[in-house]
Specification:
Elements lengths: L9 H14 L3 H33 L28 H7 L5 H4 L7 E5 L5 H13 L3 E3 L7 H10 L4 E8 L2 E9 L5 E10 L16 E5 L4 H11 L12 E8 L2 E11 L5 E5 L3 E10 L10 E4 L2 H4 L9
Helix pairs in contact: 1-2
Length: about 325
Amino acid sequence: MSETTGNPSISTTMDYHKLSIQNRKCKIVKRTQFTKMKHEKAKEKKSRRKKAAEMREALGDAAPPKPVPHTTESLRPPDLTSVEADDEEVAADAQNDEFAKYFNCERTPKILITTNKKSSLETRKLLDEIVNVMPNSEYVKRGKVDMKDLVKEAIEREYSHVVVINEDMKKPNSIIVSYLPEGPTATFRLTSVKLKKQLKRHGNATRHRPEVILNNFKTRLGHTVGRMLGSLFHMDPEFRGRNVVTFHNQRDFIFFRRHRYIFKKNARVGLQELGPRLTLKLRRLQKGTFDTTGGEYEWYYNHKQMDVNRRTFFL
């Protein structure tokens, strides 16, 4: 009940309607009443937001700040390994890590891309598009060569990376990225794959070297993974092509997108997706090159220990 008027409040009315809907036996009536209740709730929310906007406009600079919505990511507990953009310690470590030569423009990427030993048509289609994304990459047929021998041969031929697309049930399901010659090696689960032809209003990509955006990598582990993904592309992009590649981390899912930006009138910018579209999730980060038996892991995913709290993220 409302304290001032004695009338039932909106939340009390909604709860009453919800109980009455649950007690209904007819599914059609239940569905109709539930839709009506949702409509009333949305209408009330819209009215509340409109009043708040009018109040902020009337108060001007004296208006209270907008409340921050509670999301899974905003409620993330503090992490000891979190890093800031201007952290001097992280910057000093970056000058001496495995990717320092690349980010100091002392080394250009040269990537060997291959698949598992017997790849399907779906995997080869994805491979063709990934080779198109990285102009500095080369596809080499795997054949019956083991992963360790493949890495040794890539080091002898002075490749900077080995990228392997694996599959399960004739569909690509994971990607291994190994930085040569000393590692590290990352294994990602691969999901939500959409090729260029599956995207609406997609554009046709050119072979210009793209710009790279690495977004929302907030921890030490995320910093390492972001630098590894960034090292797959040339440090000197060709701005004439207006191609941009994005790795956006959200809740430990890394969303990969490629767009062409188009300048419009009134300082507006349009985006045209070029594809492919895919999602990565880190499973393992191993020191050195690929070694499943004697390799030392910096981090690996253990769902029994790591999925206890849904608000805990690692990247």
